[in-house]
Amino acid sequence: MEALKGNRTVEKKVDEVRQQTKAEKKRLAMAMREKQLGALGMAMDEQGRVVATRQVEEEMKQLVEETGLRCCICLEGYQNQPKKVLGVYTFTRRTILDEFENKQRKTHGYTTVTHFNVVHYDCHYDAIKHSRSRDEWESASLYNGNTKCNGLLPVWGPAVSESVFAGNLARYNTSISECTGLHDTGYVFTVHDLRLLLTRFATEKSFSAETGGGGRDSNIKVIPYMISIALYVISTTRATANMERHLTSFLEAPNEKWLSAAYELESPLYYLVLSLFVFKTSEWKLHRLSFLKRLLVLTHARQESSSPVDKLSVTNPLEYKIYKPNLLLWALVDMAHTWLKTAVSDATPSSDVCSVWLDWLRHNDQTVLGACEKMLTSYQEEFLPVESFGEFCDA
């Protein structure tokens, strides 16, 4: 080509071809750039600046800042993706429900903890597809703050259909069955699961010993969503009337049966948590001292003997530290009645308590999480430092 430059006519033609080639490459590059910008909802203005298209600007105006739960992968929640189901990564293991149960072979159930990382089911499954070398939960742990998990507890959003929620709940129950070998995941086991989680707070035990992550702040937030699962199951199985009968029978039991009740699986500890699903707040306030008395008797009896006794050999009060865990459990349930059930009023029919409460939990995730933070603050600052029963009553 350089040799041809000696001929001016040929040299001019070569330069023209080079300029045309350069212009064509530039045109193709600009076309590709416009195509890629278009895919992103962007374009170039007359001055060559990259700007958003009108359509994107309109969509941006419609976007609302997520203030409640949001996916740890796409960072969107029910405000911007109302029909995409969210779930909470959880870890569940098999356990004996109550070491003091008066049976040779204790009843097994399960206990659940969390790091409270929330994810869309769609995002979760997409992430799994792109991680072919790892199994589902090994992959999920990367999005769960490198915390071990084996379940995805569904959160029923306001615009999510019942059939979609029920399908995800069935998957969650299947996960529990697979990791525990237990096939009964009815509301009774969910109530025990909630009781065991609250007991970790009451006994100040670790939430992360088995998983490597998640503490009080994470696990206080999952409480209303565990409650939601139980509320849904109770409502769909129409178990409310049966629960009311059992709770009434428990409260009407004569004092002579209080000692034996301390060694039953459905002990005062179980009925204390069950009261959340039966009582309105005013009914709880009417009966809460009855629960407190039974918890004191249970604590005293279990401290004296690991098996049922007909009579206490020591009737003087024990040290406060012995009663403290069960008193803290009572306080946590009291707070849940007070701050998590604001939608349930005295005018609510008893048969509708579960459905009204569930509907409120579905539509108020930001308020619910605020109530959880309030519970945690009260637990840590008002009740944990207490060193006597008198102080506890004043807290």
| Helix/strand/pairing category | mainly alpha
**Binned strand content:** 5-15%
**Uncertain spans:** none
Which percent range fits the helix content?
55-70%
Largest sheet: 3 strands, antiparallel
Question: What average pLDDT do the residues reach?
Answer: 90
Question: So how many helices?
Answer: 15
Core attributes:
two-stranded antiparallel sheet, 5 strands, 395 residues, 3-stranded antiparallel beta sheet, elongated, mainly alpha, 9% strand
Q: Any chance you could write out the topology, listing elements then pairs?
A:
Blueprint: H1 8-39, E1 42-44, E2 50-52, H2 54-62, E3 86-96, E4 108-120, H3 121-129, H4 136-143, E5 151-155, H5 162-180, H6 187-203, H7 216-237, H8 240-252, H9 258-261, H10 268-274, H11 281-304, H12 320-339, H13 353-363, H14 365-383, H15 389-394
Antiparallel strand pairs: 1-2, 3-4, 3-5
Verbal overview:
This protein is mostly helical and 395 residues long. The protein has 15 helices and 5 strands. It has helices at residues 8-39, 54-62, 121-129, 136-143, 162-180, 187-203, 216-237, 240-252, 258-261, 268-274, 281-304, 320-339, 353-363, 365-383, 389-394; strands at 42-44, 50-52, 86-96, 108-120, 151-155. A 3-stranded antiparallel beta sheet has the order 4-3-5, sandwiched between helices. β1 and β2 form a beta hairpin. α6 crosses α10 (268-274). The longest helix has 32 residues, at 8-39. The protein is elongated and about 120 Å long. 33% of the residues are buried.
